[in-house]
Amino acid sequence: MSGGIALVVEGLTLRFGGLTAVDNISFEVREGEVLSLIGPNGAGKTSAFNAITGYIEPARGEIRYRGARLTGLKASAIAARGVVRTFQKTSIFAGQTVHDNVAIGRHLHSRQRTLAIVAGLSSVAREEAQLTREVGDILHFVGLTSRADTVAASLPYGELRLLEVAIALAAKPTLLLLDEPVSGMNPVETASFMKLLGAIRARGITVLLVEHDMKMVMGASDRIICLNQGRIIASGTPDHIQGHPEVVRAYLGSKYVMSSPPP
Amino acid sequence: MKRALTALWLLFLASIPLWLTDLYALHVLIMTGIFIIAAMSLNLLLGYTGQLSLGHVAFFGIGAYASSLVSLGFEVHLLPNWLVSLEPKPVWFAMLCGVVLAGLSGWVIGRISFKVRGAYFVIVTVSFAEVVRLIALNWVELTQGPMALNNIPALRLAIPGVVELAFLRKPANYWLTLIVAVLCYVLIRRLVHSRAGRAMVALRENEALATSVGIDVTHYLVLATVVSAAMAGAAGVLYAHYVRIVDPDVFLFIYTVTMVIMVISGGKGTQAGPIVGGLIFGLLPDLLRAAAIKPEIQWVIYGVLMILIVHFLPEGIVPAARRWWQGRVPTAVIP
After folding, report:
1. CATH of region B23-328, choose from 1.10.10, 1.20.1630, 3.40.50, 1.10.3470
2. What is the model's pTM?
3. Which residues in chain A are closer than 8 Å to B186, comparing Cβ atoms?
4. In B235-257, which positions are buried (b, 16+ CB within 10 angstroms) versus exposed (e)?
5. Which candidate from B191, B215, B216 shows the least CB-CB separation from A118?
6. What is the ipTM of this complex?
7. pLDDT of A47-90, one tens digit each?
8. Cβ pairs bridging A and B (under 8 Å)
9. Which residues of B touch A84 (CB under 8 A)?
């Protein structure tokens, strides 16, 4: 699968009132890669996420996934095409158990028709049993098996963030968009999250990542795109981005840009 | 074990008319049962999707009026020279019409309010109920307005030559109400323990996240509204053919409030909640009356009890009782 183009973003422009949050950006995500969007706060990373997943309507531009247009589709329809996101602010079904949270995430891959449910057909019961097993597998995959019956709201922070990923994985994404998944995690939790990210990748899931933790970004990404004030200022491999003068200027200010070549 | 308990409990409920000789008490039970059905239907919306329908009595009233009118027949001038008339139809068919029409109006409300949540959903439902009440009050040619629809026939079921059942007396109406209530309970139970129920809960808990995993939230809100409205309609249908007189007062706001009190005090989002709340607040007025307490004091007790429940058990009686029980019995699973 790897190598082909998965997601195409073309001339994407987002406006909120008079403010242009994202200004005519274009990029591609290849099948199987981990692509990171970085940039200072307000650069337009999350807005771009919202546009790709159908949460806001772009002023201009087109988004295609595996050849099909996503622009104009409802968010739930975009998820049905395998493009699934997580949220920057921790987002779970707080009053439900960890197991039920993931079960809700399985929604798209359940075949129960409303009439069958009301009639109490045995196919529904069979599918529910199957669902319980599948949820168990996902919880095992992210390492939350022991928490299955805990009410989500009472999980510690690091596990909450794992649960968010588990919910998204339950929807069987082919392109997973993670919005600052390790923000607020300690270095140990971040390291184990990077391992999880590797495992997600190994399943052939393409990942688009927004993250501020540079260790994570540099360690996990194949390519990086740096945004500033709604525009792409640099893109390339982690090594390339690390030394890029525009990126340093955007993050730290121009006096930290090493004059190159050195005198 | 659990099954045996359920069967015993049902057997007890079904046996009540056999040993309860006080007909007034039986009447109170029937009315409470009808209200419990309405409260269960409200709970599907309020407890599971998290949307408060403050016009729920509209569906109850629509069921009651539609069923009465179909069973009585009517003649209406829709335009000065366009007369629409309907011959009286069998009561079982009228009852079906009432349920279906209530469900349809639920669908309309669900579609209209497809983007409104929270306070706006409340406003849409309240307005709808008020409009329907005004129609019932003023469209005298159809509804007799404040003169009420009288002589509504009771349900008669007959297999020619084999058996004929007339639901004229109280025990028969009690059993009919019990059967409908059990049917509604089973239906809601199946719904909430399925993909559809999970989608509804997801809407209540976190709509943005629900959408992100592909749940068409609006679809499930409409589904919940239709099922809920049809069940409230069924309660109205039972009411109409039991009391056998229907006037615009069936649309009074206080009935919606009573349903909300039953659901909230019993525990919204639990299946037993509306039943417990419905039993307490359905039977309480008559228990107090039976205790020969002065009327003014009766309502004070009613109000104080309500405040106490909401204050000390904000989640409702059933969740609180469940937690107390779990705290008492040491759980076997220790991680």
Report:
1. 1.10.3470
2. 0.87
3. 120
4. bbbbbbbbbeebbbebbeeebbe
5. B191
6. 0.87
7. 999 999 999 999 999 999 998 899 989 999 999 999 999 998 88
8. 93
9. 212-214
